[in-house]
Specification:
alpha+beta; name from scop; 3 domains; five-stranded mixed β-sheet; 63% helix; elongated
Length: 423
């Protein structure tokens, strides 16, 4: 009685914030000389009993309490899946397996009855003709009898197994891992506090209890309704023959079992939704864990930033070195810039020695002006050269006419090209 009052008092304290006066005369102060202990001071002063007062949090989100507020990443989900930790309701394969077994029994009922009749005829009706029952004759007889029962029940067990596999695959897909079978010493705990909390005050226990009560209620109402509707037919079986009465009762039993199985199958859908939500809740991460995972995947952001800066500096150095050898820069005027050089050893064929976009284009223009290189604005040509011609690649002949027109407006550069061509 004391334990029951203690349990109900703690539960109501978590639900309503107090003990609601379950003790007959209200909570009494702790008296070490008395055998009638007052509950409230003993549990309200947690510092007096360090490590012995469990956390009776029934309906809190554990992830938020632990600072895990971020949704799990795809990498976290994939790693947990490889460990066999997936959202799954055990009720779906159970309900589907039961449904498949019922349908298999209904379809193969004729085959089962025929097999039972044959086994009965051989081993019961003709038992005297089997010969003496010795150790030598018993083994083949048992093997044959087991084979007959196996073939008789093969459709039933095959349907149950097939529907069970379908129920699991429909939830988690094709997954095979032995990780859940690996023993983990960390799961073994000798803490009395945790044992009490997990046994009596776990949220999962109350959820399972609620599901069980709902199942019993629905199954009870459904059974009562079906049996009451077939009650007259059940009474009439007393005036029927044995075969007819058995068929009638079998059909009513099959209908009852089928409807109850469908009810369990329908109830398993919200259970799967709850299991999935609970699974996602258990995988929530802290912001620090997300940052750590990003570092593992992408590398340290500071290191990557230094690498990008180093690569950018090398590119700038390379571009500036190439611009010093250029003869002409075509601009967009602000978004693109293409530096061109006329090679004297290849019939002055124009070659793109550098090109850039946005800040690189600005750097090319500035370096070109600093080195006395002509800068010409020609939007269509700059865009096409940037898009179609790679660095150190010769410019196609289809652009020669436009380049010649540009050179006509630059007499100094044209004279330089002519001198190099003559040389």
């Amino acid at each position: 009685m004391f334990i029951a009052r203690l349990y109900i008092s703690i539960l109501l304290k978590k639900l309503f914030g107090g003990y609601l006066g379950l003790w007959p005369n209200g909570p009494k102060p702790f008296d070490s000389q008395s055998s009638d202990w007052g509950l409230q001071p003993a549990f309200s002063n947690a510092s007096a009993l360090p490590g012995l007062v469990p956390d009776f949090s029934l309906f809190k989100f554990a992830a938020e309490d632990e600072g895990r507020t971020e949704d799990p990443t795809e990498l976290r989900k994939r790693r947990e899946r490889e460990k066999g930790h997936v959202p799954k309701s055990h009720e779906i394969p159970a309900a589907l397996g039961t449904l498949g077994g019922l349908i298999a029994l209904f379809v193969s009922s004729g085959w089962i009855l025929t097999s039972i009749a044959q086994i009965t005829k051989v081993y019961v009706g003709s038992f005297n003709s089997l010969g003496p029952f010795t150790e030598a004759s018993a083994i083949p007889m048992m093997i044959q009898l087991s084979k007959s029962f196996f073939l008789m029940l093969l459709p039933f067990f095959g349907a149950v197994m097939l529907m069970g596999i379908i129920g699991n695959v429909s939830q988690v897909g094709f997954l095979f891992t032995l990780e859940p079978l690996r023993p983990k010493l960390s799961n073994i705990s000798f803490s009395f506090n945790k044992m009490i909390e997990k046994t009596l005050f776990s949220r999962q226990i109350y959820i399972n209890l609620a599901k069980t009560l709902i199942k019993l209620t629905l199954i009870g109402f459904a059974s009562y309704y079906i049996i009451s509707s077939d009650f007259l037919d059940i009474i009439k079986t007393g005036s029927m023959g044995v075969g007819a009465s058995l068929r009638s009762i079998a059909m009513m039993s099959f209908k009852l079992a089928l409807i109850l199985t469908i009810i369990l199958l329908v109830m398993s859908i919200p259970d799967y939704i709850f299991q999935r939500l609970q699974y996602l809740e258990s995988l929530k991460m802290t912001k620090q864990e997300i940052k750590q995972e990003f570092r593992e995947q992408e590398g340290d952001p500071l290191i990557k930033q230094r690498q990008r800066q180093r690569a950018l500096d090398m590119m700038r150095t390379s571009v500036r070195s190439a611009i010093k050898t250029a003869d002409l820069v075509i601009t967009n005027p602000t978004h693109y810039a293409v530096a061109i050089r006329f090679l004297a050893d290849d019939n002055l064929r124009p070659v793109v020695v550098a090109k850039g976009e946005d800040f690189l284009a600005l750097m090319i223009r500035q370096d070109a002006k600093a080195n006395g290189i002509d800068v010409v604005e020609h939007k269509p040509l700059a865009r096409e050269l940037y898009r179609t011609v790679a660095v150190n690649e010769a410019i196609p002949e289809k652009f020669f006419i436009i380049i010649i027109e540009i050179l006509k407006g630059l007499p100094g550069l044209l004279a330089k090209i002519q001198r190099e061509s003559a040389a």
